[in-house]
């Protein structure tokens, strides 16, 4: 775990000599600077926040992937006056150099790559020790821990934001059972998040992870994409673009029809299992690839998960089918050898392949999601006294503002409605 800032701004890293820790932090700073170049909207918001201080003195506990892009978000919130403690939202996705650099910027970071489950939760508890007024979550583990193990802190929490689809599903369930004790803003559901981060971000970074891990040629391969939400659509599009034949599996008939009309083959997993070379799960549900599917797969099949939790591929079933496991035959790649000699390759232990085997979504898309996140937090900080517990949409103006700023940063102009067009849109009397 990263320690507090040492004199001179250098961070110390648990178990590392000071000099090495300083070098790690410097590498993290370079990585953050690089990400920031592709995040003009978030940087502009940081400048605005520094002048307006919309979060002055607000204590925030965040549970996010500790990446360079997250560091840029933390910088903007800190510029706005927030006091922040950050834990990782996944035990494998932490970029240790970034964590070290962040500690040097005065943010309490509780994260280290590769920690076990107990340490992962210990870090979430440590972030909660800040006694947050506002929480930021990615997957709902922090909110869940607050409601189950840190209930004494609940009266002090006035609201939070959730970053991802899986977290929103859990929150809506909590709200339906009247268990949610404060307002949570569904940042995931903004158009600027779903249309770009889920689709282009997950699409590119998932294939990036698979390629970094295996260096496999995707042209001519059969890629099976389980789940055709925004993320699955992104993965399918990118795989197709690289020359793969794509099969989609779905349980929702409308999404399945959408996939079919977009030109993909649609099959049940039991059939796709026999022909797939690469399998990617992006459903948000568990046991999408089970023992019965694993038994049918070809020698050399690659299994990757891009859903938030490591439950989509039944790793226990894989373990019990395998006679031998050859760990790390390639980076992030474990080989499971079955009784008949077939080898199945599991990437990133079944965890988020894009953040474990690659670096997560590119900064240019995180610019939009984290700008929506930053504006949603300031909205929440203003409105929190008026909001009852529940799940809230991000106000539509925030979406429009993020998109406008992103277009401006790209020097792209768009049309505006004429007065006549405005009237036309608001008049029901006008006919053909
Ligand atoms: N989720 C997906 N990609 C990410 C990134 N680069 N940083 C933080 N969270 C992410």
CATH architecture of the largest domain: 3-Layer(aba) Sandwich
- CATH class (first level) name of the largest domain: Alpha Beta
The strands making up the biggest β-sheet line up spatially as 11-10-9-12-13-16-15-14
Radius of gyration: 22 Å
Shape: globular
Strand content: 15-25%
List bound small molecules.
adenine
- Biggest sheet descriptor: 8 strands, mixed
Distance between the termini: 67 Å
Q: Which secondary-structure class do the elements indicate?
A: alpha/beta
Number of strands: 17
User: How many DSSP H or I helices?
Assistant: 17
CATH topology of the largest domain: Rossmann fold
> How many domains, in number, for the residues?
2
Question: Can you identify the CATH superfamily of the largest domain?
Answer: Adenosylhomocysteinase-like
Low-pLDDT residue spans:
1-16
Walkthrough of the structure:
By secondary structure, the chain is of the alpha/beta class. The protein is built from 17 helices and 17 strands. The protein is 45% helix and 18% strand. The strands form three sheets. An eight-stranded mixed beta sheet has the order 11-10-9-12-13-16-15-14, sandwiched between helices. A hairpin with a 2-residue loop joins strand 14 and strand 15. 53% of the residues are buried. The N terminus is likely disordered. The structure holds adenine. Adenine binds next to helix 3. The site of adenine (ADE) has 10 residues, from helix 3.
List keywords for this structure.
432 residues, alpha/beta, Rossmann fold, 2 domains, 8-stranded mixed sheet, 7-stranded parallel sheet, globular, binds adenine
């Amino acid at each position: 775990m990263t320690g507090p800032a040492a004199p001179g701004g250098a961070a110390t890293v648990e178990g590392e000599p000071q000099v090495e820790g300083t070098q790690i932090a410097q590498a993290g700073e370079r990585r953050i600077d690089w990400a920031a170049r592709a995040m003009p909207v978030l940087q502009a918001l940081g400048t605005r926040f520094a002048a307006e201080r919309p979060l002055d003195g607000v204590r925030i506990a965040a549970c996010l992937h500790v990446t360079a892009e997250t560091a840029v978000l933390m910088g903007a919130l800190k510029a706005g006056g927030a006091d922040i403690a950050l834990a990782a939202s996944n035990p494998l996705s932490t970029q240790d150099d970034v964590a070290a650099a962040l500690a040097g910027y005065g943010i309490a970071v509780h994260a280290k790559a590769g920690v076990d489950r107990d340490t992962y939760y210990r870090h979430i508890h440590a972030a909660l020790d800040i006694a947050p007024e506002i929480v930021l979550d990615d997957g709902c583990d922090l909110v869940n821990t607050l409601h189950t193990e840190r209930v004494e802190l609940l009266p002090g929490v006035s609201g939070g934001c959730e970053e991802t689809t899986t977290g929103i599903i859990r929150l809506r369930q909590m709200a339906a059972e009247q268990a949610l004790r404060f307002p949570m803003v569904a940042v995931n559901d903004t158009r600027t998040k779903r249309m770009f981060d889920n689709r282009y971000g997950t699409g590119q970074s998932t294939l990036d992870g698979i390629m970094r891990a295996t260096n496999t040629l995707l042209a001519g391969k059969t890629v099976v994409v389980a789940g055709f939400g925004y993320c699955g659509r992104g993965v399918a599009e990118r795989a197709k673009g690289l020359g793969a034949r794509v099969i989609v599996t779905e349980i929702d008939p409308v999404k399945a029809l959408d996939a079919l009309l977009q030109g993909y083959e649609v099959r049940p997993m039991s059939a796709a299992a026999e022909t797939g070379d690469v399998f990617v799960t992006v459903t948000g549900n568990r046991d999408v690839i089970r023992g019965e599917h694993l038994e049918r797969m070809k020698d050399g099949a690659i299994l990757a998960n891009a859903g938030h939790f490591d439950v989509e591929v039944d790793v226990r079933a894989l373990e019990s089918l395998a006679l031998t496991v050859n760990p790390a035959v390639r980076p992030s790649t474990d080989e499971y050898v079955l009784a008949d000699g077939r080898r199945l390759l599991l990437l990133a232990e079944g965890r988020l392949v894009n953040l474990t085997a690659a670096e997560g979504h590119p900064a240019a898309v995180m610019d939009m999601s984290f700008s929506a996140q930053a504006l949603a937090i300031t909205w929440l900080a203003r409105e929190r006294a008026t909001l009852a517990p529940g799940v809230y949409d991000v106000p539509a103006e925030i979406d429009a503002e993020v998109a406008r700023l992103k277009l401006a940063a790209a020097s792209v102009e768009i049309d505006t409605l004429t007065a006549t067009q405005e009237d036309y849109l608001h008049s029901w009397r006008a006919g053909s």
